[in-house]
């Protein structure tokens, strides 16, 4: 199996030309994020991802993880050493507060870095992903004392973090959560069981910091009675050294379709009287605190869709270049399968979907940086709304793309794709979790429809649509070969406008409509937004080629890929519109007993 090679030219292009890294570097605190610095960081991370972490991927998938000894989990060979190199390079600290050991660089840059971890080895990459989410939750909500004690070693990477929400009876619906917390002076005793806890136990770091949702005895019923607690694996002494083991342990590991080298744990708290925990934020406001972690985590899960798509594409492309089979049209003798039009169709689909989803993800993450750092309050508010609107699209659409591209990767390999040794099957298996965790894509679609469109009567969507139309108008006003493509994108944007209007109008009289059309609405929006970004990329590529600036091969490929997306993928929007216009009737018509 070929090892991963980070697409550094592509990543730099998206960061600089589409996400606007140069403009981000002018925001207060981001001055160090120069193009040279960004390129250097990406290059160094690419070496670690490709040379050290990627070669562990297939072996980790085969070996998996297991509990041994006193509730310990051993990671696959090489994982600990790779993680130590990650810590030594301070790669987990890029976007965090310098007051706690961070480097204060843009979140958008850290997202590009995280893409490489997940392309190289998604099981391994989940460990720093959860830690960075826990750091974000603590940074936004914890007391000064908790921040001072826990953030520096977590940002450094010496300690990792987890998110403990789900229970056997409480999945997406947190109102039925049963884990309890009882106040004992300056701390709380936590008791209960959590499931699906990613990297809940492992041997890569000296301590693990669990963020646990639980109820106080007098808490109100439902989601309004949930609080958030910090529960360390090992208690921490006043001087920062580690004390005794806390009353929390892994009791079993889930047996999963994919991400075999990532321990997904059933965690038990309080078997011996109660695990010591500390309140994060206010009592009964735990979900609010956790959402500061979950929203960013949803963006990174969308990024995982991009990452696994990139890895699957590279493997399929390399195989197609090396596999001889048949005589392609226009050829006189047998050759490599990359010459066959249907193989080209699959590879171009994989490439175009990956590039479009990467662009949309990075651009959305740039709004997260503007939301925090822009000096103008109105601009911060607009980027806050833009990021909120696009987050479910990035999570939902990009993870659906991850599945599609990984599946096509198997297909390009033909029968060999169904054989585990090629590696294509692992990416297909690993990608399957992405539309499920951090809120299923059905939940993301409902969020987009209900909270992000209906709740504000489409105002945030209108601003985004205006921005998209402006990009189309700019191309139409130029003497460009892209005018026909711009017309196609403009028509698709108009279809999205119509779908939004239908949602706002018909949902008043049809209680089922928002839920029935929400997934297709999300996929419509992702498809059209992807075309918007590919059109912008094509415009830049066309300009650079005309100027004779930069890598002509890269810009030529970018232009061709954008045309393919607009010609062959954007027409999918017509199907989504037709399904949205059909409404809810056929979805809800069948009596439950007849299923």
Helices and strands, with pairings:
Elements: H1 8-18, H2 21-24, H3 35-53, H4 57-63, E1 66-68, E2 72-74, H5 79-88, H6 107-120, H7 122-141, H8 144-156, E3 159-164, E4 180-184, E5 187-198, E6 207-214, E7 227-232, E8 234-236, E9 242-245, E10 248-253, E11 264-269, E12 275-280, H9 286-322, H10 341-373, H11 377-412, H12 424-431, H13 441-454, H14 459-476, H15 483-506, H16 513-547, H17 552-569, H18 572-581, H19 585-588
Parallel strand pairs: 3-6
Antiparallel strand pairs: 1-2, 4-5, 5-11, 5-12, 6-7, 7-12, 8-9, 10-11
Question: What's this model, at a glance?
Answer:
By secondary structure, this protein is of the alpha+beta class.
Written overview of the protein:
The chain has 595 residues and is an alpha+beta fold. It contains 19 helices and twelve strands. It has a domain at 456-589. 56% of the residues lie in helices and 11% in strands. The radius of gyration is 24 Å and the shape is globular. The mean pLDDT is 96.
């Amino acid at each position: 199996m070929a090892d991963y090679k980070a697409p550094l030219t592509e990543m730099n292009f998206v960061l600089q030309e589409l996400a606007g890294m140069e403009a981000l570097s002018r925001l207060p605190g981001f001055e160090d994020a120069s193009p040279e610095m960004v390129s250097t960081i990406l290059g160094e991370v690419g070496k670690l991802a490709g040379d050290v972490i990627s070669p562990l991927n297939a072996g980790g998938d085969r070996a998996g993880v297991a509990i041994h000894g006193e509730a310990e989990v051993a990671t696959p060979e090489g994982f600990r050493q790779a993680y130590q190199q990650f810590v030594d390079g301070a790669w987990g600290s890029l976007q965090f507060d310098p007051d706690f050991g961070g480097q204060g660089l843009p979140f958008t840059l850290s997202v590009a870095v995280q893409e490489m971890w997940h392309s190289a080895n998604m099981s391994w990459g989940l460990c720093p992903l959860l830690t960075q989410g826990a750091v974000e939750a603590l940074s936004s909500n914890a007391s000064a004392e908790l921040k001072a004690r826990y953030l520096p070693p977590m940002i450094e990477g010496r300690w990792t973090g987890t998110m403990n929400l789900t229970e056997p009876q409480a999945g997406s619906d947190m109102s039925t959560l049963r884990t309890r917390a009882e106040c004992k002076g300056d701390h709380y005793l936590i008791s209960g069981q959590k499931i699906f806890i990613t990297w809940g136990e492992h041997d890569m770091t000296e301590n693990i910091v669990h963020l646990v949702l639980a109820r106080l005895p007098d808490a109100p019923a439902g989601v309004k009675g949930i609080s958030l607690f910090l529960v360390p694996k090992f208690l921490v002494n006043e001087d920062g050294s580690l004390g005794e083991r806390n009353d929390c342990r892994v009791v079993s590991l889930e047996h999963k379709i994919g991400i075999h080298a990532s321990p997904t744990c059933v965690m038990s708290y309080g078997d011996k009287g109660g695990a010591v925990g500390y309140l994060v934020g206010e009592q009964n406001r735990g979900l609010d605190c956790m959402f500061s972690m979950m929203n960013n985590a949803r963006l990174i899960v969308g990024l995982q869709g991009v990452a696994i798509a990139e890895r699957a594409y590279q493997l399929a492309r390399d195989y197609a270049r090396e596999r001889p089979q048949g005589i392609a049209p226009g050829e006189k003798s047998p050759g490599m399968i990359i010459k066959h039009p249907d193989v080209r169709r699959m590879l171009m689909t994989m490439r175009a979907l990956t590039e479009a989803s990467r662009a949309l993800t990075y651009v959305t993450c740039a709004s997260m940086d503007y939301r925090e750092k822009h000096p103008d309050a109105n601009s911060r508010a607009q980027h806050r709304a833009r990021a909120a609107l696009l987050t479910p699209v990035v999570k939902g659409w990009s993870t659906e793309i991850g599945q599609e591209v990984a599946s096509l990767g198997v297909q390009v390999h033909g029968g060999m794709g169904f054989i585990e040794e090629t590696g294509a099957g692992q990416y297909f298996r690993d990608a399957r979790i992405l539309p499920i965790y951090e809120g299923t894509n059905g939940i993301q679609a409902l969020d987009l429809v209900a909270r992000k469109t209906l709740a504000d009567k489409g105002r945030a969507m209108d601003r985004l649509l205006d921005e998209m139309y402006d990009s189309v108008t700019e191309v139409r006003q130029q003497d460009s070969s892209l005018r026909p493509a711009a017309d196609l994108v403009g028509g698709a944007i108009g279809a999205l406008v119509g779908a939004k209007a239908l949602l706002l109008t018909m949902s008043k009289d049809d209680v089922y409509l928002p839920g029935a059309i929400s997934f297709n609405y999300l996929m419509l929006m992702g498809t059209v937004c992807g075309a918007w970004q590919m059109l912008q990329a094509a415009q830049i590529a066309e300009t650079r080629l005309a100027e004779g600036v930069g890598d002509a091969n890269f810009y030529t490929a970018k232009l061709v890929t954008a045309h393919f997306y607009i010609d062959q993928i954007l027409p999918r929007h017509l199907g989504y519109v037709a399904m949205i216009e059909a409404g809810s009737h056929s979805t809800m018509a069948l009596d439950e007993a007849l299923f």
